[in-house]
Design a protein that fits this description.
The protein is mostly helical and 115 residues long. The protein has one domain (2-110). Helix content is 83%, strand content 0%. It is built from four helices and no strands. The radius of gyration is 15 Å and the shape is elongated. The N and C termini lie close together (8 Å). The structure holds protoporphyrin IX containing FE. Residues 2, 5-6, 9, 45-46, 49-50, 52-53, 63, 66-67, 70-71, 73-74, 104-105, 108-109, 111-115 line the site of protoporphyrin IX containing FE.
């Protein structure tokens, strides 16, 4: 399940950058399709994350923090996309995304479940 979890967020990250590139190229149709697939991957990240979470006998505080941070990062991805498509400055959303992403990956690997 850990492999599946990592695979889903790595693919989501790639799709996110593809969507950003398509937006810059103003390929509206392709952008919409990629964002749709990206949103399916959000659900897969949450599903695999939840399965990891509920496979634990006791869920300690740090696991809740990890899960919450994971959900926030998904929110930040959406924030960057929505600000960019609306032509608003996405600077703050990018900073939140980068800081949140580093924190969630660090916490994920630091937590003991592993592979
Ligand atoms: C973009 C969002 C996310 C990223 C980048 C991310 C990243 C990671 C990483 C790097 C690991 C470590 C894997 C390992 O130990 O080998 C991990 C584990 C885990 N993730 Fe996520 N995750 C995200 C979203 C979520 C969500 C939404 C949940 C809960 C609903 C979640 C729950 C977990 C749990 C329970 C673990 C196991 C921790 C352990 O290894 O002990 N994650 N995640």
């Amino acid at each position: 399940m850990t492999h599946a979890h990592i695979t889903t967020w790595v693919i989501a990250l790639i799709l996110f950058f593809v969507a950003i590139a398509l937006h810059k190229k103003e390929s509206k149709r392709a952008y919409k399709i990629v964002v749709m697939i990206l949103r399916v991957f959000y659900l897969l990240i949450i599903a695999t994350g939840a399965m990891l979470l509920f496979s634990l006998a006791t869920i300690t505080g740090m696991y809740w923090v990890k899960a919450l941070l994971g959900l926030l990062v998904i929110g930040f991805l959406e924030m960057v996309l929505s600000f960019s498509t609306k032509g608003k400055s996405a600077g703050v959303a990018w900073i939140l995304l980068i800081v949140g992403f580093i924190a969630v990956v660090y916490l994920g690997f630091d937590l003991p479940m592993g592979f």
